[in-house]
Write a structure and sequence with these properties.
Blueprint lengths: L11 H16 L5 E8 L2 E12 L2 E2 L13 H13 L25 H5 L17 H10 L16 H14 L3 H13 L11 H4 L1
Antiparallel strand pairs: 1-2, 2-3
Helix pairs in contact: 2-5, 2-6, 4-5
Length: 203
């Protein structure tokens, strides 16, 4: 946002500001590190990395990182495939797929997961090292903050963990493999890390 897209040459002042912003976020504990890239007509004008990818693993401009929110459209595309094949209904309740889903979230639907209206934005697990089963159990038991569908609240990872589990339950296949087969490979994308990532992927 600090770099004007119409600029013909790099704005070093803006680049310095971006680097200071990234360093500030790291120093204040908001993130371990950052990658920043911007180009004009295909020519890079800003490209740098700051901090670590993981503790003890310096971040570079070529480091592979998790997709995080950028992966949301990918799961949405998988839901679209299910819709085309009439294997899912956007207004079907989440509890249809999971035992133990409740704590005020019974009205939550697939549509609510897609639109951040599930009512459990605070059930964030971030990068905690736990199995998908354990994560889903924790989210399922989390008490709703409001009636699903009545308000919106950004669910950075929780809603997408649930949606991923629903897709896997219907398809009988791992979500990451589905994304690779139906999205990445047809596009010729390689060297990606959608959900799984550890030190060997970074180094």
């Amino acid at each position: 946002l600090l770099v004007q897209p119409s600029a013909d040459i790099p704005d070093m002042t803006a680049t310095s500001q971006l680097k200071a912003l990234a360093a500030g976020h790291r120093e204040n504990g908001l993130q371990l590190g950052s990658q920043v890239y911007a180009s004009v007509r295909g020519e890079p004008i800003v490209h740098f990395a700051d901090g670590d990818a993981m503790t003890g693993h310096p971040l570079t401009t070529s480091s592979i990182l998790r997709w995080y929110e950028a992966g949301m459209p990918l799961l949405s595309l998988l839901v679209g495939r299910l819709l085309e094949r009439e294997k899912i209904d956007l207004d079907e309740p989440v509890e249809r797929h999971f035992k133990g889903w409740g704590s005020g979230k019974e009205a939550c639907t697939v549509r609510h997961l897609l639109t951040h209206m599930g009512g459990f934005a605070g059930a964030e697990l971030g990068d905690r090292d736990m199995s998908a089963k354990a994560a889903l159990a924790q989210i399922s038991a989390y008490r709703a903050e409001y009636l699903p569908g009545t308000r919106a609240g950004f669910h950075p990872t929780s809603g997408w963990r649930v949606l991923s589990a629903i897709i896997e339950a219907i398809e009988g296949r791992n979500t990451e493999k589905l994304i690779d087969r139906h999205i990445f490979k047809p596009l010729g994308l390689r060297g990606h890390a959608f959900t799984s990532l550890d030190a060997k992927d970074i180094d």
